[in-house]
Amino acid sequence: MEKLKKYVSVKDEDHFYHQGAVELLIFNFLLILTILTIWLFKNHRFRFLHETGGAMLYGLLMGLIIQYVTKSADDESGTVYECEKLKSGPSTLLINITNQVYEYQYKREISHHNVNGHQGNAMLQKMTFDPSIFFNILLPPIIFHAGYSLKKRHFFRNLGSILTYAFLGTAISCIVIGVIMYGFVKAMVHIGQLKQWEFHFTDCLFFGSLMSATDPVTVLAIFHELNVDTDLYTLLFGESVLNDAVAIVLTHSISIYSPKENPNAFDAAAFFQSVGNFLGIFAGSFAMGSSYAVVTALISFMHLTKFTKLCEFPMLETGLFFLLSWSAFLSAEAAGLTGIVAVLFCGVTQAHYTYNNLSPDSKMRTKQLFEFMNFLAENVIFCYMGLALFTFQNHIFNPLFIFGALVAVFVARASNIYPLSFLLNLGRKQKIPRNFQHMMMFSGLRGAIAFALAIRDTDSQPKQMMFTTALLIVFFTVWVFGGGTTPMLTWLQIRSVLVGVDPDEDLKPKAASQSASNLDKNTTKAESAWLFRIWYGFDHKYLKPLLTHTGPPLTSTLPGWCSPVARLLTSPSAYGDELKDGDTDYIIDNDELTENYERSVHTPAPAQDSTGSIQATGKEDIQEGDLGLGGYKLQLQHTACQPQKNSLA
Amino acid sequence: MEKLKKYVSVKDEDHFYHQGAVELLIFNFLLILTILTIWLFKNHRFRFLHETGGAMLYGLLMGLIIQYVTKSADDESGTVYECEKLKSGPSTLLINITNQVYEYQYKREISHHNVNGHQGNAMLQKMTFDPSIFFNILLPPIIFHAGYSLKKRHFFRNLGSILTYAFLGTAISCIVIGVIMYGFVKAMVHIGQLKQWEFHFTDCLFFGSLMSATDPVTVLAIFHELNVDTDLYTLLFGESVLNDAVAIVLTHSISIYSPKENPNAFDAAAFFQSVGNFLGIFAGSFAMGSSYAVVTALISFMHLTKFTKLCEFPMLETGLFFLLSWSAFLSAEAAGLTGIVAVLFCGVTQAHYTYNNLSPDSKMRTKQLFEFMNFLAENVIFCYMGLALFTFQNHIFNPLFIFGALVAVFVARASNIYPLSFLLNLGRKQKIPRNFQHMMMFSGLRGAIAFALAIRDTDSQPKQMMFTTALLIVFFTVWVFGGGTTPMLTWLQIRSVLVGVDPDEDLKPKAASQSASNLDKNTTKAESAWLFRIWYGFDHKYLKPLLTHTGPPLTSTLPGWCSPVARLLTSPSAYGDELKDGDTDYIIDNDELTENYERSVHTPAPAQDSTGSIQATGKEDIQEGDLGLGGYKLQLQHTACQPQKNSLA
């Protein structure tokens, strides 16, 4: 008897293992299908359905199949059991069922009206993974990659506009959606489509903030492929990256805003508390992310020069880089800040400082690793969004609400882009033309972040309705607007491969010489704000020499009385850099160009080789802002530790 | 009131998110510490504590800190609640507690006597992750990497010996441990240290099979670093890789062996069922793994030639490669086979066929990706083993049992290595010397697989005692034997950097010419068995040309009447290969050497470049079998799709 029971228990456990494998296998299968489809589309230059749209479509189909093929859950689920002895829900519950103790783990709290929704499909229920996997594992690599692959030159040239769109624009979008939805909800209550108590104004604002997170992954991938005008690309890229961070913090602040008495009345104290909260969290997350990156830069810097060669072990270097960057995210989350913001600025700072200290091998490894993780995570998320239409058990479809949200989203996008562009054009030397504005308006897709924010809280009926609506708006925008990007570009006559750009054009001026980048530098200085110039000077004179091997030596930038400290902190290789134009090295691309150029002049390499390496760098420069699939080639140096060798020579 | 409750619920949820982040952060922190320590040790050439030992030590310390610093769990846990209405444990349980419904998820079944053990530490409980994460996510990359980085030339040269050690040796080890432990348990019962009912002979055999999985990660990493004799390295590497697979399937078969009546009596029917089960699962898993690899090879082959260039998108290629290899594991698990065996042979087959079809960029990407994943997963596992001493709540320390197990493990290792070596030496031309045998005896560390097999089933008291014992034996062997590897090598006078090997020696003959490899080939043929020779001929004549771009064209190997089919299936580049010595290409290393050599002869590259590339390949050759940290350098071609270009030229 006892033997038999043990045997059954092992069988049971095996069953559970296989379940885990089956779910992962389904995701794998979806991803393989997606990759094969992408490859087919790329091959036939078919641009009306992007990979993200394809992944979503496959997810949807798979959900449909599972829904109708697999059997529904056992009868027990859906029944609520009473337990009078318990006063609150413990994290682990031990239950004695027919003389056998079972351990159960706390999953979540459920509203009473949702209980019936739980009589769903067992397979689909298992496919629903914890939102914390979304936030802790899938999102960080995507956001980090965005920061790490920022085209810094163009980004800083358009910094003012990007910040305006990201901060002011997202706030406008949030308020406009909130107000329109509140009006809509009031009207729906009036005609009897909705119960009065369901929506407060704060709920509408909450919906506004989560729907303000734009995600033009699809658009940017197409832009990249078609070599669309770099300024437009940078504006959109910069806006969408920062806008995510703003929307996340905004959503958090609104969910915390809780007026004392009437939830519809304005409570100044609570409002200012929320604003203070927003600023505090944003600044805190920024500081957390940057400081992790600075620590990484310092470690890699120390390893490279002062002690010994970490760069001889590219695996350790890559591992450290990866773990410290992920820790930036996790520490921020653990400290109650926003991990996404932290990891974004961590990525930017890593690219600015740490990247310069890495060995050539690690430079390539880190880039490829994050590129790959970004690619996988993105496709998993879009597959999952497709599946979520079926796996999520408590959808509330309200056609009127969805229609209202669609209208609100577009009005909000318009009142973000057009007025702000008008204001920005007053101050900009190089105006943002009309067709760029239309394209930006058109590129307001919603994606992973809006979905993730909506799924985080689906306890109440209004929140469930919001989630369903957000999911459908994501589908609509990704398929319709994502698919329409190529025709729209042609129609708006925007510079791209389709309209008047030679695909190799960008390659030539950059690969040609440094004089071009000097020209760029001057325009950058003229256009950027005074704040940026002060920061740039400080960064170039003190931070760069302290954290990397580029820039002038500290001994020449610090005042005389600091010279003993300065000499201690300056790496031997920095002295050699005094000779070259120090101003070009605040951009990775230029930096590498210079280094390569220098190397080809100073080292006795054959002539063919040196031109080869310059061309290769030029290519990489173009593909730096690469989000999805670009296959840039980095020329791997034969010697493992280039900077080290330089310093010894 | 309602508002307030919602607010509390959000807070509560936030709390749960942060918990997930904190746990991941702790692991990140442990890994960062480990990496910094490895770097320090490598720097000071300190070889007495290897990285795996270090990771385990940090895990142990962290567990100790958590144990004593954090507060213990809430009072609710540890109390068992009654539920008369339930007849069996459903997968999801809804419970109404003070008018609020909570959802609980099934975790596991608990024996009555373990209930008290659950009054443990909440933090530690959360750090205990599901064994299915171990099996589905952490183990596959390690095993795949082992297969993918197999030094095939040396592996096949010693194939007979490796198979003998792996299959016969593991079976011997399992039986010897089982018998000794059974005797020990009987004796303990006799002196009153153990209750009679607890251990059956099958339990002892189960323990024997899980303790037979050796894991010389530590030893091999040191061997690699010290350039130890390649034959010894290959023998150990091959044995440990295959031995894991054998031990896993053996454990499964024994757990299924359930004699009808008396569990101590021998039941022939059940025994043969278990043996059949063993063979069936092994063969099935092998077939599953290989067929996934063949599918991958076919896809990459098709993409490369027949249709268009998948190799233009190295990201897609790498993604497909990664997902299909992982799917091999998951499919096997889902089908009730052994994923580890499937993914191992998938790795070997991928390296043999698919690797040749990949673009140079993807070759490097896949290698680096799996190397990195292997590195991370390995360190996570060893950290986790350290933590498990504290996180696992139901340890049963029985000093006598542990002592007995330690003795049994060493007797079993000795009765595996020495008699089998003696038998093998009767047949081998190149004998396995005495000092090699001692070193193999000494390298019988236990590691991740033994731990994973033991943690899979800890429901009953005997299983818990086995788990505790296995964990302590892992600690002991990794620290004592891992640390003693270097002194042992010196003491046994084994060829290495320490004793009579010039670190660069291996480089010269390999880089020099092909004649050396021809010589090797001849000895290979002389030494290997007839079965292997038949397989080799079949592989070289039909499979290689069908699945890769190397080897002779099918038109010349297939009989005349097949020529239309053969012409269709042969890639254009294969015809060019007729000229070169077709026999060298069954080994990746040689293959690349030849290709590079050919390229340097056929293409008008500068002379410096060609010698450079041959040297680089030579280096890579040596570091191919690299398990841990080796930083091999692959020369990345400037042109993205080399084979494609060749075929067009």
UniProtKB/TrEMBL annotation, chains A, B:
Keyword hit for Ion transport: yes
> GO biological process: what's one of them?
sodium ion import across plasma membrane
Stated membrane topology is: Multi-pass membrane protein
Q: Where in the cell is it found?
A: Cell membrane; Recycling endosome membrane
What residue ranges are annotated as transmembrane?
A: 20-41, 53-70, 133-150, 162-185, 205-223, 278-301, 335-355, 375-394, 400-424, 436-455, 467-489
**Stored InterPro entries:** Cation/H_exchanger_CPA1, Cation/H_exchanger_TM, NaH_exchanger, NHE-6/7/9
Per UniProt, what is one GO molecular function of this protein? potassium:proton antiporter activity
Q: Which domain of life is it from?
A: Eukaryota
- Keywords for this protein: Antiport, Cell membrane, Endosome, Ion transport, Membrane, Sodium, Sodium transport, Transmembrane, Transmembrane helix, Transport
Q: Cation/H+ exchanger transmembrane domain location, by residue?
A: 33-491
Example of a GO cellular component annotation carried by this entry: plasma membrane
State the family named in the UniProt similarity comment for this chain. Answer: Belongs to the monovalent cation:proton antiporter 1 (CPA1) transporter (TC 2.A.36) family.
Q: Which PANTHER family match?
A: SODIUM/HYDROGEN EXCHANGER (PTHR10110), SODIUM_HYDROGEN EXCHANGER 9 (PTHR10110:SF61)
Protein name (database record): Sodium/hydrogen exchanger
